[in-house]
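Dear colleagues,

I hope this message finds you well. In preparation for our joint manuscript, I am sending the PCI domain-containing protein (Dactylellina haptotyla) sequence together with its predicted structure, so that both groups work from identical material. I would be grateful if you could confirm receipt.
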Amino acid sequence: MVGEQIINVIRKAVGDEDPMEGVTEETNSGMSEADQQLKDRNAIIADITANFALLEKAVANFDARFTLRVLRSLNTLRKRFTSSILADIVKKTFPPSHPAYSSLLSILADGSHADQDVSMDIDAETKAPNVILPEIDVYLHLAVQVYLLDRREYDKGAKFSDDLVKRMHGMNRRTLDSLAAKVYFYYSMFNEYLPGSEPSIGIRAQLLASLRTATLRKDIDTQATIIVLLLRNYLSTSHINQADLLVTHAAFPESAANNLFARYSYYLGRIRAIQLDYSSAHEYLISATRKAPQVSVAAGFVQAANKLNIVVELLMGDIPERSIFRQPMLEKPLRPYLALVRAVRIGELDAFQNTVNSYAEAFKRDGTYTLILRLRQNVIKTGIRMMSIAYSKISLRDICVRLRLDSEESAEYIVAKAIRDGVIEATLNNEKGYMQSKEITDVYATREPQDQFHDRIKFCMQLHNECVTAMRFPMNQHRLELKNAQEARERERELVKEIQSGDRDDDDGDFDGI
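The corresponding structure tokens are as follows:
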């Protein structure tokens, strides 16, 4: 023993190492890596199976909050999904005779991106239960949907989702509402990612049929989700009339989630903006930006809503507040729109046209290019308004030169229209060819302050009503009240029977049940 220690000391001093030492360390490190993979694998399986208990509790208590907890955990778990892990869970959950057993395993086993994971044997004693809750069944199908979407297997995912939606169409359970809404969401996403517009158009019949069924069943989550998906589908192919008809005939549920309501308001604002109803579009877009989550995950939606809202405000003749462009989440994406606002504010057609040409690709990508082209008349009106403030009298020739118009007749027509629309307070002398501005009156002598106060009070009242609507009340409270009322009626019947039989006199009292 002492000799071995002396030999080791001499080897360290000389620099000679034991040749078996590295092999042992490599073996130990390999074993530790395998153990870590096995540990991670068991952890993800335990997390997924733990959601089964929450789904069972949701069914037992008829409480959708447990299902929402399961759906919130899905975004975290999806990063750790593999085909072998999901296959092991399917084997543990479903009996071999179940229809989903073979279908799910064929989906997970097939494909070109097979996972190279550490295999884990399933104990022979572990038997799958004979009765599977539909909620657990749909949850596992939803997990497979998410797995296929993350692996970008769109063709396989579209076919799988189509079969799942047709199967769910016959399920009528209110505890499945939240899960069904997610299934329809991914069903639409798979078809959007397929090349061409035919897949998106092809799913409209199924979505409309599902919307009719969800409305009859009073399935609020699925109903709100499908309406939003249909609006997105129609707008992606520029079918504005169909989208408007859907909004007219399908009432959006007032008790829908905030995220769905924000998306619905955004799509409705886009429809109204295309239909030239800018005031309504502005209200819907403001509602969408205020209801949207102000977190990094929803940054894309917040940016899209603010971009469209800026264009709508410019079309209304207003200038957006500068504070919008200073927000960290919006500062960089809104730079093209800041340049656009500057060009419209100063009322120069050359600056406006140069800005549109410079950022044309960004505007087309955002879907606001056609709306921005309508701003040319607003730029001209702004220029006329600036000149009416700067000059008490100006000739039509000077207006034509400053606004780069073709002729004095065009300038005369534009000035007359601006006066009629109330953009400027001026008079037009056609014989001498000049515009004379009126004296600026006190703004507080007009109706503008009253209109501003009315808009603010209306918004505060609407916000109060929405807060009252969003209040959460105890679940199943009506059932408890019905049970107490039924017990009171039973006690009343017993007392009446006792009085009729002579066992109790009227003077005995104790008529609490009546």
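For the figure legend, we might mention the following. The CA atoms of residues 145 and 157 lie 6 Å apart. Residues 13-29, 111-126, 510-514 have pLDDT under 50 and may be disordered.

With kind regards,
E.M.
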